[in-house]
Amino acid sequence: MVKRRLPKPSELREILRPKPIKLNPTERRLANAHTIADLRTIARKRTPRAVFDYTDGAAELEDSLRRARQAFRGIEFHPNVLRGVENVDTSKEILGKRSALPFAFAPTGFTRMMHHEGERAVASVAQRENIPYALSTMGTTSIEDVAKTAPDARKWFQLYVWRDRGAGQELMRRAHEAGYDTLMLTVDTPVAGARMRDVRNGLTIPPTLTLRTFLDGATHPSWWMNLLTTEPLNFASLSSFGGTVAELINKLFDPTLDYDTLTWVRESWPGKLVVKGIQNPDDARDVVKYGADAVLLSNHGGRQLDRAPTPLELLTSTLDSVNGDAEVWLDTGILSGGDIVAAIARGADACLIGRAYLYGLMAGGERGVQRCVDILRAEIIRTMQLLGVRSLADLRPTHATLR
């Protein structure tokens, strides 16, 4: 028989230690987010369905996005032991400048639709964390306002080529004068992809108050209140527009985009040039010949051509094709620090994240974006330590193999 006794008060004090109560509701929500998937769950509850689906969804059957994530899930790590990994260096040189982490914030459109703090929140975190931020042509905060918000951040500008070349020339001029050091030319969007969630949700830019959105808004009153009581949601680089995303793309973007266009952009832009949306090694080699300083393997987050190539699986052949003449970056499907470490080990010079920080933004504004970075940093450090590497430069393809 086990002899029973009453616990001493000192013993109870050791056990009964409640967590500190966080009075701020945003901090309380974010404290429960330990992964990017947790941020996604919070974001889904905090935003109307059409807005969440715009961020979360992809084209047609969404196979491109699904396959990209499955590729990262298929990575097998091969650790070394007895390497002394108390301190690890997560910094990475990206186009000649050091970034504290091996990733940048990707350009995303309509960012203030996800949360009223929008691009300013993301740029502020980028400045604080010393990582690059790319502002989209379809951004909802102007080139100049982002520069004022984060004057010391490393800022890039993402350009879609419009039918009106003069407008594109003006955007490049403004970005250069505002201190953006890199232009990211997106080449995978001659026409809009079929993003079926947006079609079924009837998403318009800006969102319109129909009976359906009104009923959805009744369950997300804070989102609607923020939308209606802050500066109007519009495109900082457009005078005005109302309609669906697909209508906007097909009206404004130039489907005649070709290598002559790339030559024009290269001659017009004095800084570093990245070509975004490369999906085969031959194109990567060709754009480097036309002056690209880096190529970004990307299928637009699965949002353009469904069943497109998976960027992670293209990486080795693209590195061989470019042969060290330009940096090779990677996006699509990245939802953890382990994914980023795997991509760097496989040979990528940097990664870009989009949905991951947008989930954070929707979950809690600037603090949510910060939480995203904190999660990814902790995962990168832990993965490196468990792999037995003290710096990103020590990573090799043998550390992360595709099963």
Write structural notes for this entry.
It is a single chain. The protein is 46% helix and 12% strand. By secondary structure, it is α/β, with parallel strands linked by helices. Helix 7 (118-129) packs across helix 8 (143-149), helix 7 runs parallel beside helix 18 (355-387) and helix 17 crosses helix 18 (355-387). 47% of the residues are buried. The mean pLDDT is 92.
Percentage of residues assigned to helices: 40-55%
Unreliable runs, pLDDT <50, ≥5 residues?
A: none
* Order of neighbouring strands in the sheet with most strands: 4-11-10-9-8-7-6-5
Overall 3D form? globular
Question: What is the average of the pLDDT values?
Answer: 92
Using the CA coordinates, give the radius of gyration: 22 Å
Main β sheet profile = 8 strands, parallel
Order of helices and strands: HHHHHEEEEHHEHEHEHHHHHEHEHEHEHE
The tally of beta strands, per DSSP, is: 12
Tally of individual helices: 18
Strand content: 5-15%
From the helix content, strand content and strand pairing, which structural class follows?
alpha/beta
